[in-house]
């Protein structure tokens, strides 16, 4: 399996960084995020929206 490259946010003059979702999601449209010891799943729905669940 290929190693994922780190997504780097694009800074826009003091605003939050921007990362394209395609740089984060795998081939199935999913990403697991670990935050403060808890895992969350970010996934793309059939309608092309993003949903974050724990």
Could you explain how this protein is built, in words?
- By secondary structure, this protein is mostly beta strands.
- The chain has a domain at 26-54: Complement Module, domain 1, CATH 2.10.70.10.
- It is 0% helix and 44% strand.
- The chain has no helices and five strands.
- It has strands at residues 10-12, 15-18, 30-35, 38-44, 50-53.
- The strands form two sheets. Strands 3-4-5 form a three-stranded antiparallel β-sheet, with no helix packed on it. Strands 1-2 form a two-stranded antiparallel sheet.
- The mean pLDDT is 86.
- It comes from Billgrantia antri.
- InterPro entries: Hemin_uptake_protein_HemP.
- This is Hemin uptake protein HemP.
Count of helices? 0
From the alpha-carbon coordinates, what is the Rg to the nearest angstrom? Answer: 13 Å
Q: Which residues form runs of ≥5 with pLDDT under 50?
A: none
Question: How much of the sequence is in beta strands?
Answer: 35-45%
CATH superfamily of one domain: Complement Module, domain 1
The average pLDDT score comes to 86
CATH topology of one domain: Complement Module, domain 1
Question: What structural category arises from helix and sheet content?
Answer: mainly beta
């Amino acid at each position: 399996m290929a190693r994922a490259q780190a997504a780097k946010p694009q800074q826009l003059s003091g605003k939050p960084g921007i990362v394209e979702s395609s740089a984060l999601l795998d081939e199935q449209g999913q990403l697991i995020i670990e935050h403060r010891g808890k895992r969350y799943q970010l996934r793309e729905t059939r309608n092309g929206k993003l949903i974050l669940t724990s």
